[in-house]
Amino acid sequence: MSVAATHELFVATYGRRPSAVWSAPARVNLIGEHTDYNGGEVLPIAIGQRTYVAIDNAAGSRTRAVSATEAGSAEFDPRRPERTGRWGDYLAGVVAVLSGRGCAVPALDMAVWSDVPAGAGLSSSAALEVAAATAFQSVAGAAGDPFDVAMIAHEAENGFVGVQSGIMDQFASALGRAGHALHIWCDTAATEQVPMHESVLIFDTAEPRSLRGSRFNERRAECDEALRLLRGRSPGVTSLAQATPELVRAAALPAPLDRRALHVSEETRRVGLVVTALAGGGSVPGALLYESHESLRRNYDCSTSALDWFVERAAATPGVRGARLTGAGWGGCAIAVGDSGALEASAPLIAADFEAAFGRVPRSWISAAAGGVRAEPM
Ligand code: GLA
């Protein structure tokens, strides 16, 4: 359906068939929030929502792209991609990074289709960057190793688009595997696949957000400052995640850096506990999700009343084991884990109560861990 829709958009726009269609998934993070850019661990899954990119070589010298969901077409010279502040930056950014690595991407005609909601904290940008990076590499005749693709997409987001994100989103989109969560040690970019057989309820609080406009870069700067102060006391500490909670407490950093640092230190340790439970054939320990949410709310100050409402409502629902905000926060999505029947049955009830409380219509999905970037059959 989605491949066909991407195909159709390409044909309707350019009057011929595309030569290839690639797709990459969105993600939710099970646990390990705001740890990736602090040298910590994360545990995302790729989800069922994907972004599809149809391509073919262009006749002219400019790359053109249309999107079924984003307004306005994008157009740029692939030999000199420039930042415009619009959605085409995700494509131009990937072309810029590739050309910086000696991989010249030719001018292309492109059509983009996606069922990843933008601005919901599900990494719509990473899905587009990863699908585009893989498509561009294949057109340019370069081998599309998913690890390289993730690195290229991450560099495009940071260096070109200008969001100082960590590596989690692009890694989940490029390296996700069906039935598995992706455990990433963000200090070394080492990864392992961890069996993850349960589905997750994803609840979008419909509070639009964009990392470009959020306090994300401000938090990064606070974490850098907290690390600098910690290292003044303990020069051996190389990252905030590496500092133990005891060390952070003993350092008595000035507020709010003390709370930011404590969140990062404790959160990265929770990742290890969830990985151990999953690797042993168990399910996601719900109590750790509640702890994570509480720390994001109190220590990292990135929750909202709508996200808190969802977590409390989920906690009061029989059969739900755990819930927390997922992604950067400041709006966007939360997740819940529990009995699959309970998740299915409670989703519409929670949505109705949410609408009554907030006057906004939320969206929700139930997703298993899905596969990463791939070529779609034509
Ligand atoms: C955003 C960033 C990620 C990560 C999360 C918070 O999604 O893109 O790199 O920092 O926020 O965990």
Write up what this structure looks like.
This protein has 378 residues and is an alpha+beta fold. Helix 2 crosses helix 4, helix 3 packs across helix 5 and helix 6 packs across helix 8. Alpha-D-galactopyranose (GLA) binds next to helix 5. The site of alpha-D-galactopyranose (GLA) has 12 residues, from helix 5.
How far apart lie the N and C ends?
A: 12 Å
Bound ions, cofactors and other small molecules, one mention each: alpha-D-galactopyranose
Unreliable spans: none
Mean pLDDT, rounded to whole units?
96
Strands of the biggest beta sheet: in what spatial order?
5-4-6-3-1-13
Helix content: 40-55%
The number of E-state strands comes to: 13
The assigned structural class equals alpha+beta
State the helix count.
11
User: What is the overall silhouette?
Assistant: globular
The largest sheet, given as strand count, sense and whether it forms a barrel, is: 6 strands, mixed
The helix/strand series, from N terminus to C terminus, equals HEEEEEHEHHHEEEHHHHHEEHEE
Percent of residues in beta strands?
15-25%
> What Rg is obtained from the alpha carbons, in whole angstroms?
21 Å
List its traits.
378 residues, binds alpha-D-galactopyranose, alpha+beta, 11 helices, 20% strand, four-stranded antiparallel β-sheet
